Amino acid sequence: MxxxxxxxxxxxxxxxxxxxMGCGERTGxxxxxxxxxxxxxxxxxxxxxSVAALPVAVPTEFTATNDAVPRYGVQARRILVSVRPTExxxxxxxxxxxxxxxxxxxxxxxxxxxxxxxxxxxxxVQGRNxxxxxRVVSDRQAIDASPGEIRxxxxxxxxxxxxxxxxxDVVITAGGMPVDVPxxxxxxxxxxxxxxxxxxxxxxxxxxxxxxxxxxxxxxAIEFNYSVALPQSSGKLGSCAxxxxxxxxxxxxxxxxxxxxxxxxxxxLRMKWLALYDPNSGPTRAVFTSxxxxxxxxKWARRAGATRVGKYQLGLFTPDAPNKNGPVVPADxxxxxxFQPVSNDDLEHFTVGPIDKP
Length: 358
Description:
CATH topology of the largest domain: Immunoglobulin-like
Oligomer: single chain
Largest sheet: 8 strands, antiparallel
Number of helices: 4
Strand content: 35-45%
Structural class: mainly beta
Order of helices and strands: EEEEEEEEEEEEEHEEEEHEEHEHE
CATH class of the largest domain: Mainly Beta
Number of domains: 2
Radius of gyration: 27 Å
C-alpha cells in the first residue's frame, strides 16, 4: 500500500482511516551513507522549528454512538509544522531529513490524506497493520504511521536548508480507555402545585453512562532530524536535530458533555463539588447529563432545604489538585478524605457548570 504526504497547509482534507493496535516491526527509512559527526557549531541554533494545531471536523466514522456521551475525547486536528533557517543561504547541503510526531496523552486513530492526485512513484504510508487506502499523490515523501508516532521522510524538499511548512490531518483519542460514569437520575422534582417534592419521597439513583475514553490533555513532541554534508570533508555528515512540543488537545476541547454542581469560594470560582454519600458504598460525585437536569436539582434542593435524598446524604468535597492538567474521570481520590455534609448556606450557593470547571 502507498500514499504520499503532500506539502501545503491548505491542501489537506480529512480522509481518515482507522488505526489498528497490532504489533510489528517498525519500518525504517534509508539514510545516506557516510560517517556522521555532531552538528556543526555554525549551524546549531540557526534552524527553528514551530508547531501549531488547528481544530478540524471529526469524521463520521469516529462520532459517538447513541449510548455514549458526546464530545467524549475524540478530536481531529490539522498539525502545522514549520522549519525555518534564521539565516539565508546557509552553506550546507542537506543529505537526508525526517520529521517525527510522537503523541503524549493519547493515540492517533486516523490519518488524513492529501487532496488531489498528481505525480507518481513509490512513496507512501507504511504502518503496523494500518489499513490505509492506497492513493498515489507524489513521489517525494513517505509516512510511517503507528498509534503512537508518525514519521515523515524526507521532510525537506531539495538539498538546501530553506523555510518549509507542511500539514497533516489526524484523528486523536485522548486518554485511551473506556470508563462508565454514574450520573444522577431522579423522579419528578416538582408537584402539580409547583412545589418542591418532599425529599423523603424523591427517588434518586445513579445510572452509568459510557465514556469511550478518559479525557485528558494531549501533547505532541516534534523532532526534526537532518544530516548535512560537512564542508571540506571526505564524505562525512553532520547530524542535527531540532525539537518542539505543542498541546494539541486541551481540557476544554475534550471535556465530555456532563455537568456538575459546585459551590464558589468567597463568591469566586467553584472549588467544592457536590457528592452523594451512601453508607454502603461511600461518596460519589454528583454528575448530570444536561445543564437543565443539574439546574433543576440545584433549584429543588434550595427550595426543599434538602440535605438528604433517600439513602443519600448530600455533601461537598474538594479535589486534591483542582483544575490541573490530567484526567478527572473516572475517580476523585479526595472524595473520602474531604467529604463534608452540606449546610443550608451551601444549598443557597449551588452553582451549575461543565464537569470539573470552576
